[in-house]
Amino acid sequence: MSPPAPKPVEPGAAPPAEERTSVSRWIPAVVVLALWIVVWVFTRGDDTLALPGTSRTDLHDRLTEFQNDLLAGRSTNPLMQFTNSIADALRSAVEWLQRMIVLPNFPRPVPEVGWLGVVAIATYVGLVVANWRIALLVAGSFLSFGVFGFWQDSLDLLIITGISVLLAVVIGIPLGVMIGTSQRANQVVTPFLDFMQTMPTFVYLLPIVLFFGIGPSAAVVSTLIYALPPLIRIAGFGIREVSATTVEATDSAGQTYWQRLRKVQLPMARKTIIVGLNQTTLAALSMATLAAFVNGPGLGKPVLAGLRINDVGTAFVPGALIVVMAVMLDRTTTAASERAEKVARGGGGDVRVRRGLLIGGGIATVVAVYLSRTYVSLAEFPTYSVGDSAASAVSDAVDWFTSTFGGATEWVKDLITNQFLNRTQALLADSPWWLAFVAITVLAYVFGGVRATISTIVCLAGIWYFDLWHDAMITLNMTLVATVLVMILALVFGVWMARDRRVDLGIRPLLDAGQTIPPFVYLIPVLALFGPSRFTAITAGIVYAAPAAIKLVADGVKAVSPTTIEAGRSTGQTTWQEITKVQLPMAKGSIVLATNQGLLYVLAMTVIGGLVGAGALGYDVVYGFARSEAWGKGLAAGITIVLLGVMLDRITRAAADMRRDDGPGSRRAFNVRLPIGPPR
């Protein structure tokens, strides 16, 4: 039963007790900030633990020595032997698929299946799992990969993504069933899933390279680890959501555990599980793109090459093709989910027409595969100059824009940098480490209670231990500033969408499309506008995090009871009072959840921003990739980023639990938290 709706607040009346309690938390927070600033004035610049430039500490060098010892003993270390055998198997699988569809299979001078056969097979798969519209989308997407000159890179990326998703299904579905049918298993597995989803994508790569080397194997393993949690979490959630009455009815009929699972729970959770597959596929594509940092094959390589030389035109075309691929995979899995639901309900359209399409499409596919194996021109994709022309056009457009509007973009960058970034960074990074430690801990207690305080103390102690305190505070500052800007956008657009259905219908498709784009791609247009700087990383983080935060706020405000809103209007409330006194307070759970997601999204993007001048921990990780002698510092930076993410996650989650209700944004909503965004 839903809790009774809060009594509407009359204009000029005192806010309810719950709202006064929420407001009262800001009073001690302001006091703590004031005391922090007073002490900072007298201690500024002391004991900041700043580490100049590329300097390293003894701890960082010991971590590097640990890596060297592992690599030196790889032939005798059982763990290294085991991971090397897995790496060899994955590398062989990737190379076999490459020889099948994208690379010459010597002595054959072309792949076993040429481009025409590959396009035909992919199109037919789209027809089988969804419908003819999706088949056309798939065909157009594959043709665009070749026409723009990135056929091999595109198929390499699909190979890495496909293998990772297949392994995620093999591992994730059984684990999802386990946590969906056993509360004890759910309690054990969920903390690991939380940790895996809190860790920024970039951080996976350093330890994975140590155990699996560079190349396709590291790309598959890192992609698998990142893509696995959504499927496990959502599959388990779908199984738990099966009606208890239905389960009890099957139990009374004498069905065994396996019969109940196979005949009732899995069929009824089918749509939710396919949504989880959708999220896992998009997460896999996102991580497979980032795997270019560890020499993973795919479109990430040309994007990375363009970013490294600050050439937006070079990075734009492969970046756009990544977006095309993401949209294709998203729409295909979504349509497959919708079709599965229709078929389960006895729908699915005219059976004879569909059977004819499948038979005709199957015959055409077999013919296309045969032709692609017979004629070289149908095996090797023709060479076009469309990609080069598009890259040149984008470069020219960027040059024109920066020369025309460079003053305006510089003004925006300087305004936010000087008025927000520099001021807050001075407090966080220039405070003595012990002062920032105490102040952050007290603030965690104010907003999150004892649980958040304990987590904060542990995480801050870890950050101090790994000798990157100053860089951590700079990264924390960038994350907090970007999150504040994200939440301003989320509140403005979320409330607007919730109050105007036409706005919702206009904006939501753009937000859905934005959530399908891998984070790596966001750097390209932002780099074109603002050049390499920490502001570029922050702006990319805002663009990356805003869609999820806006949708969470919009859905939370929209879920406020219409009866409550009407009751408030009957007392003569203005629109502003209605929003601030009724809708936002009642949607506070969703707002806190949006803040939580915004923080984690922004932190992940800030780390990736190390490529474009963000500095701090992001640069430390990139430096650790580039220089073998700095591997230990890169690992320490990665662990520090994880500690920052866990600390921010625990504080916001605890804050949400202290304000939780049974509506959107409740504790239950956190248990289905996704790295790409909530299911659409």
Automatic annotation (TrEMBL):
<keyword id="KW-1003">Cell membrane</keyword>
<protein>
    <submittedName>
        <fullName>ABC transporter permease subunit</fullName>
    </submittedName>
</protein>
<feature type="transmembrane region" description="Helical">
    <location>
        <begin position="109"/>
        <end position="128"/>
    </location>
</feature>
<keyword id="KW-0812">Transmembrane</keyword>
<feature type="transmembrane region" description="Helical">
    <location>
        <begin position="26"/>
        <end position="43"/>
    </location>
</feature>
<feature type="domain" description="ABC transmembrane type-1">
    <location>
        <begin position="472"/>
        <end position="652"/>
    </location>
</feature>
<dbReference type="Pfam" id="PF00528">
    <property type="entry name" value="BPD_transp_1"/>
</dbReference>
<feature type="domain" description="ABC transmembrane type-1">
    <location>
        <begin position="154"/>
        <end position="333"/>
    </location>
</feature>
<feature type="transmembrane region" description="Helical">
    <location>
        <begin position="631"/>
        <end position="651"/>
    </location>
</feature>
<feature type="transmembrane region" description="Helical">
    <location>
        <begin position="312"/>
        <end position="329"/>
    </location>
</feature>
<keyword id="KW-0813">Transport</keyword>
<feature type="transmembrane region" description="Helical">
    <location>
        <begin position="598"/>
        <end position="619"/>
    </location>
</feature>
<feature type="transmembrane region" description="Helical">
    <location>
        <begin position="433"/>
        <end position="466"/>
    </location>
</feature>
<feature type="transmembrane region" description="Helical">
    <location>
        <begin position="158"/>
        <end position="182"/>
    </location>
</feature>
<comment type="similarity">
    <text>Belongs to the binding-protein-dependent transport system permease family.</text>
</comment>
<dbReference type="InterPro" id="IPR000515">
    <property type="entry name" value="MetI-like"/>
</dbReference>
<feature type="transmembrane region" description="Helical">
    <location>
        <begin position="134"/>
        <end position="151"/>
    </location>
</feature>
<keyword id="KW-0472">Membrane</keyword>
<feature type="transmembrane region" description="Helical">
    <location>
        <begin position="472"/>
        <end position="498"/>
    </location>
</feature>
<keyword id="KW-1133">Transmembrane helix</keyword>
<feature type="transmembrane region" description="Helical">
    <location>
        <begin position="272"/>
        <end position="292"/>
    </location>
</feature>
<feature type="transmembrane region" description="Helical">
    <location>
        <begin position="202"/>
        <end position="228"/>
    </location>
</feature>
<dbReference type="InterPro" id="IPR035906">
    <property type="entry name" value="MetI-like_sf"/>
</dbReference>
